[in-house]
Amino acid sequence: MDFLDVLRQPWPWWVSGPLIGLTVPALLLLGNKAFGVSSNLRHACAMLPTKVSFFRYDWRRQGGWNLMFAAGVIAGGLLASQLLPATSGPEPAAATTAALEGLGFSLSGAFLPPELFGSGVFTQPLTLALLLLGGGLVGFGARWAGGCTSGHAITGLASLQLPSLIAVFGFFAGGLVMTHVLFPLIFAPGGA
């Protein structure tokens, strides 16, 4: 197994976790920057001529570096997908596979069910409605919480901010409710 084969495998938590954790001190050294991605939509809107006061500010001073970071995330993802395609994905837990099959999804060797992540889902009205509703709720929630999961969970918790701790509890609670309550209701056989 050569070096590229090692990079193509999913990285264990004890490698990726510390690398993510090192972003906070690195950003502090680079000028007391806060890590987060959700504010980039506001910065992108501020680049456009607008009469909305929420978008009228000096985005170059406040968010220029963050927009470059977001562009790097996209470019890095594209490069990694082309240069380091995964030879195999992580195996879902047996309970997850059984739960998804019970709702009518087939993993059939794929990590992501094609019924949820295949290109054909964009022609289904329910899927489009869920994507629009979910995207709107995520955007509203990130704005209301003063940041997204990455900003609160990485920078906010590292700097011991109580609002970030409360937001992270909210993110996890919302994820648990979606996974264990709403998802089975939406996709139950013969359901909505």
Notable features of this structure?
192 residues; mainly alpha; 2 domains; 65% helix; 0% strand; globular
How are the SSEs placed, and which strands pair?
Blueprint: H1 3-8, H2 13-21, H3 23-29, H4 39-47, H5 59-83, H6 94-102, H7 114-117, H8 125-144, H9 149-158, H10 162-187
How far apart the termini lie comes to 48 Å
Please write the string of helix (H) and strand (E) elements. HHHHHHHHHH
Radius of gyration: 20 Å
The oligomeric state of the chains shown is single chain
Described by the principal axes of the CA atoms, the overall outline is: globular
Number of helices: 10
Kindly estimate the percentage of residues that lie in beta strands according to DSSP. Answer: under 5%
Q: Uncertain segments of ≥5 residues (pLDDT<50)?
A: none
Q: Helix/strand-derived class?
A: mainly alpha
Give the integer mean of the pLDDT values.
80
> Major sheet, described briefly?
none
Helicity, as a percent range: 55-70%
Number of domains as seen in the coordinates: 2
Strand segment tally: 0
Describe the overall structure:
This protein has 192 residues and is mainly alpha-helical. It has two domains: 1-93, no CATH class; 112-192, no CATH class. The protein contains ten helices and no strands. It has helices at 3-8, 13-21, 23-29, 39-47, 59-83, 94-102, 114-117, 125-144, 149-158, 162-187. Helix 9 (149-158) runs antiparallel to helix 10 (162-187). The longest helix is centred in the last third of the chain and has 26 residues, at 162-187. The mean pLDDT is 80.
